[in-house]
Amino acid sequence: MLKLLGALVVLGLALACITSWVLDSYDTALHPAVSGGDDGSKGSSPPFPGDELHNIFWFVQVSDIHISRFHDPRRIPDFEKFCTDTVELIKPALVLATGDLTDAKTESKVGSLQHEVEWQAYHNVLKRSRVMERTKWIDIRGNHDAFNIMSLDSVNNYYRKYSANQKIGSFHYVHNTPFGNYSFVCVDATLTPGPKRPYNFFGILNQTQMDLLNTFRTESMTTNQSIWFGHYTTSTIVSPSPGVRDMMRAAVAYLCGHLHTLGGLMPVLHSRHPLGTLELELGDWMDNRRYRVLAFDHDLLSFSDLQFEQWPAALITNPKDAQYLHPGVEPLGRIRRSTHIRILAFSEAPITAVHVSIDGESLGTGRPAGGPLYVLLWDPSLYLAGLHTIKVKVEDSAGRSVVREQHFTLEDGLTPSFGFAQSFILLTDHYILGRALFIFTVLLNVVVLVAFRFLRLPSSKALSSQICISLHLISKMDIFYYSLLLFNLCTALGPWFIGELIDGHGGACFAFGVLIDGHFLEGSRTYVFGVFQLVFFNIPLTSYLCWSLHHRCSGNTLRSHFVRPGRRGRTLAVHLFMLLLLSWQAHSCWSLLRTYGVTAFFLSPVRTWALGLAVVLVYRAWTGPVPLFHDNSKSNSSS
Q: What stretch of H or E contains 140?
């Protein structure tokens, strides 16, 4: 009893240490040692936010547009209205379209193919709306824009023909204003070659691309501020050490898309890198019609995520939201020395009032200062300590209103942290986590099989001993042992399938990567699929065979073990579960056929062959010779 209690105490302490380490790793509150404090000389030097339309410009981000020839007929006209009306109303200095411009899927959504008509539709929207004449439109590729493209020179690479930007690879754009220059660095991690889905979800940056980004980082140090943007979140980019997050450490923020709010589970996905850079994932245009308005006001970045056709819209640029401060880069001292609260307000109808309150106390109504800017005199010295709440209500002549509320602070070192779930999704290198889980699961499966091949048979009749006996049975019957061992080793090391990963170009898919016409793409999502394969098929198949052989060893047959009193329901449930797993594997084979063709279907050891192997082993377990044990170390079972 004391040993058990001691073991539980040790386990509890270990779990507490692991939990503390994990929570500390994803603590995104800025600490003085990390942020480096405010830049005193820059923050205390003019100009300071005042009552004029000076030292401010704003821009827009839209992501994951997914122009489709098959789905959502409102998507294209809504996007055209956005380019025509919304952009005209907001009048941004530039627009960043961060990838997945087209859908590039088949009508069934299973396959992937570049449809020229989708690219033509996107191009026609830009032309008809004349949006490129009214603003700088910067559109970049996403993973869907690289589906089924062998090379950048491929005739199917319609991005080079129909996009506004037409630049392949990462690049550095400098936006010039009368009050300074601002860097916009594109991180292009799309795959070349670009396989069909689903092995195109993660982006990859090689060392050459990282060196180019480092050059852009150095160049951006001479500008007022820098924004980095790309399609993939940093958690879905494979990059060499020290990693892409370290590369963008001098940027105020990294803007991206790609995750589509995780199907609505995470409508807000924002976090902060360990070195202070904000990562701001934007919800998709495809289903949610999201876009983002951002502003640099006296070199302080503010933003608001908005819904298409919901007016009015408001963005508080001074004082800045406390959660999104970057003390190491932004001149936060300018907030303390500002004279006016500053708000950008947009609406289809004229703005009639902008009401402002702080900590529940009304300060008055803002007055127009030119364009969409509204200002209101304030005294920052009243709010030097603690965290405060500013609330803005914007009303227009159409009777509509919107309330914008955010926290702000003028106290050094007081920066709220982001949620654990957001930080875990954005700051975890998921390909590393997937690789670790895959290796662990493979080793668990293989080691158990090999270990019980040589262990002695227990004599106890306890439940744990019965489980051990079933593992002994499957490990010491050669047909099951070698079949399962080779199946698991093939899952870990061998090709999952061989076929056309890109139309007209053969290749092979492994857990550790994809090989296409001599080009190797490092494993990323393959590890995730590998874990699913092991957890939802390999391990359950092994467990079911153990259970079946144990029943056979006890003298039961497939028919007789159904009639045991009180066991029929549980027995039926086990068989139905195995039937469900076989159906899932069959569905995987069907998806493989639809996605990669007939060759991949027939040359697939981990999908098609595995399904056949499972059926044979299940049949053999229930119809083969009854397994027998002669002693505690050897099984004299027939194989």
A: strand 136-140
